[in-house]
Amino acid sequence: MWRWHFYAGIIITPILLLLAITGSVYLFKYDIEAALYKDYYQVEATGERLAPEEQVNIAQNEIEGSVTRYRPGEDPERSAEVAIATEDGTSYTVFVDPYEGTVLGILNDDRRIMDIIEKVHGELMAGTVGDRIVELAACWTIIMIITGLYLWFPRKAKDISGILLPRLKQGRKIMIRDLHAVTGFWWSGGLLLFLLTGMLWTGLWGNSVQNITTMSGAGYPPSIWIGPAPESGVKTEEIADVSWAAEDLPAPRSENLSGRLPVSINDIVASAEEMGVHPTYDIFYPSGETGVFTLSTFPNQAQDEATVHIDQYSGVTLADYRFQDYGFIGKVMALGITTHKGLQFGLINQLFGLVICLGLISMIITGFWMWLKRKPQGNTGAPASDRLIHHKVPFIILIVLAIFFPLVGISLIAVFLFDLLIVQRVPMLRKWLNVKEKRRTD
Q1: 375 has a pLDDT exceeding 80
Q2: pLDDT band at residue 178 under the 50/70/90 scheme
Q3: Helices and strands in the chain: count of H runs, count of E runs
Q4: Where are the alpha helices (DSSP H) in 43-171?
Q5: What does pTM read for this prediction?
Q6: Which of 243, 267, 366, 416 is 20 to 30 A (C-alpha) from 158?
Q7: Using one digit for the tens of pLDDT, what is the confidence trace for 136-149?
Q8: DSSP string, 332-393
Q9: What parts of the sequence cross the membrane (predicted)?
């Protein structure tokens, strides 16, 4: 068990450290953006607001391209946002003063600081490959936590020193060991929460959970559709930025039966206000002749989430999917995601997340320090290998995790094959990794 804990830590430490640092920053995304883009966000509420269509036209006069999104702003002193995609695929957000009709600023969406940090945190800015690496790191962090708790579990302790409280006055070595182990115990629950909720965004495990949620009947109830549910191969996440629970929602189609022109953005905004959608909503424009307007909001609290599809010709609501429509699993996941992002419970939530990230950084540093002190020359310092099957509890734990997390199973097979085909045949590697000869399972 010690050996698996050791290797899990050594392999994933660099990625885990990066995730902890970027995660601690991302918890304060909206506070940071409010400070960075204050001149773009804040307006003085004087007089009557211009109609949404006029605001969009003002933005289009600045940048030539197709309007993809409109955000009216959640309060009277917030600017409106108009997203425009140019012919080369670049997306810009134009900030418009809805009272004065002036452009406050323009941002290239690919260069927004917090969005870059989000991409580093979620996929290492490496697309699908980065997503899989992050997922694998998260999976092995769970292994590291479970094996760490197994090693921490007191067997002959007479008091709480070194178990629930670190021993700070018995020398540096014991102090560092206790700071690592005791911090790991106290932080394990919160860290597991953040790992599992973060993995909901991953391409393999997260998508599997989402599919299971939908297929189990915990997905989209018939009541959200105005009429029959659409038979569509297009998912809502492909046409709009929506909440996790709505990503797999089939996107309906607009029908132009009488040669109508599309309704204006003014009508869509009016519909949103009539439906009582949370004011932080965005309106995503139809992507073609059969596309729909999509209202999407996933604000600080999951209970306010909403995804609404509207026919672009008739202005009729085709689907209205809210938090109360989620199944039990969907509600739990939605609450977990807003908690992961530091939003659900306000400042307390942000501080809790920050403490978890800082505790993780502390465990990484103390674990690395212990390894350096323990590591002999010419060897990794890993505990001597033994047949894993002889240790029933660790063996069962790894089997269960391999079933629950597919990438764990794949990586365990890869480790086994690496050991069997390479390590066992290279004496230098066996010595460096402290591996016994003729070993079948580790």
Answers
A1: no
A2: confident
A3: 14, 8
A4: 52-62, 113-123, 127-152
A5: 0.86
A6: 366
A7: 999 989 888 888 88
A8: HHHHHHHHHTT-TTHHHHHHHHHHHHHHHHHHHHHHHHHHHHHPPTTS--PPPP--GGGSHH
A9: 6-28, 133-153, 185-206, 351-372, 395-422
Phi, psi dihedral angles at 107 (to 5 degrees): -125, 140
Residue 52, classed as helix, strand or coil, is: helix
Q: Per residue in 163-191, is it b (16+ CB within 10 Å) or e — as a string? A: beebeeeeeeeeebbbbbbbbbeebbebb
CA distance 310 to 294: 6
Asked whether 368 and 228 are in contact (CB, 8 A), the reply is no
pLDDT single digits (tens) 43-64: 999 999 999 999 999 999 999 9
In the block, tokens 């047949």 appear at 387
The token pair that represents 51 in the structure block: 């109609």
Contact predicate 271/226, CB 8 Å: no
- The pLDDT tens digits for 223-274 are 687 766 677 789 999 999 999 889 988 999 998 877 789 999 999 999 999 9
**Residue 128, both tokens:** 């699908």
